């Protein structure tokens, strides 16, 4: 199988961390592609009609896309147990919260990089960041005990979301007032699977 990804994509990073946590690198080749909303890579468009990464090309069956579809498939394929039945709904909610943070943060990135300066809308950007801050506050208030428990996909997704904030929106200082979440992320980021998948640009 092949995973189409870009190093800076937090959604792709979720899949790449899972590959390492589940020891699936021998089964899945990572293929780095360059794609944007305005210039979709041909391989990505062929795999996913929406034109987004990540996409997983399989030996049999259609390509899989949307990171949550891919992570569920890879978790099942590798029998990794990262969607534990005993706390499945909590894991899925936390993953969805992390994905929402990623979506809002990515929208801010695209607003700054893809739109001309005179067409950017600061109020819309502020509204996206408000989504991020509400989600982070909810995690700080309600989810630290889950984050501190046995490894699951909710933790991986949240770590990738926070890593993306550091990569693209560090000036917004997401850690301020969220000491527990910041402390958890500092520890989790030291995992070899996170270090191996960290983007630098």
Automatic annotation (TrEMBL):
CDD domains: GST_C_6. Residues 1-82 form the GST N-terminal domain. Gene3D superfamilies: 1.20.1050.10, Glutaredoxin (3.40.30.10). InterPro entries: Glutathione-S-Trfase_C_sf, Glutathione_S-Trfase_N, Thioredoxin-like_sf. It comes from the Bacteria. Transmembrane segments: none annotated. This is Glutathione S-transferase family protein.
């Amino acid at each position: 199988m092949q995973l189409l990804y870009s190093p800076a994509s937090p959604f792709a990073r979720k899949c790449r961390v899972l590959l390492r946590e589940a020891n699936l690198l021998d089964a899945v080749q990572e293929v780095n592609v360059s794609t944007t909303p305005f210039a979709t890579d041909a391989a990505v468009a062929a795999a996913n009609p929406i034109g987004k990464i990540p996409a997983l090309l399989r030996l049999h069956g259609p390509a899989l896309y949307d990171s949550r579809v891919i992570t569920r498939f890879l978790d099942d394929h590798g029998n990794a147990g990262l969607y534990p039945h005993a706390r499945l709904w909590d894991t899925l909610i936390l993953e969805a919260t992390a994905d929402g943070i990623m979506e809002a943060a990515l929208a801010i990135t695209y607003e700054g990089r893809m739109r001309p300066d005179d067409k950017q809308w600061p109020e819309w950007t502020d509204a996206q960041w408000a989504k991020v801050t509400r989600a982070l506050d909810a995690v700080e208030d309600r989810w630290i005990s889950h984050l501190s428990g046995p490894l699951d996909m909710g933790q991986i997704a949240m770590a990738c979301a926070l890593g993306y904030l550091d990569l693209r929106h560090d000036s917004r200082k997401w850690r301020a007032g969220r000491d527990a979440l910041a402390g958890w992320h500092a520890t989790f980021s030291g995992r070899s699977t996170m270090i191996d998948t960290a983007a630098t640009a």
